[in-house]
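User: Can you predict the 3D structure for this chain?
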Amino acid sequence: MMKLPAFEMKNQNGEIVTEEMLKGKCTILYFYPRDHTPTCTTQAINFTENLAELKERGIQVYGVNGDSMKKHQNFIAKHNIGFDLLVDEDYQLTRELGIYKMKKVFGKESPGIVRTTLLIGPDLTIEKRIDNVKVKNQLENLLEK
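Assistant: Here is the predicted structure, written as structure tokens:
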């Protein structure tokens, strides 16, 4: 199984989050294209609505994309998101994981984040990876593990 690569990103408040800070806990690290879009909003709200159950199971959640801290702050405030969103400014982690690539949106090709969710074990092993996530059943797929 693959280990989560080393990273250092800021959350919406400018606080540094590193992979070392995830050690000892199970973590859902989900990558999504951008704040304030319909599917991304649905996905964030879905995680927030299930946060109590996830915490009960000892699982923490982080969302990741290339949006600014300010945009993340607005998104969290507007939709009452209950967890930190990380800024992958130069898409370093998303590139390392093969999540940032050419994709077709409305028939137009452009580079971007392909919606992907990782379940990270306490030892930073990627225990489950779901590519091209379907938001509707993402949690069931993850929690089968």
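The mean pLDDT is 92. The chain has one domain: 8-143.
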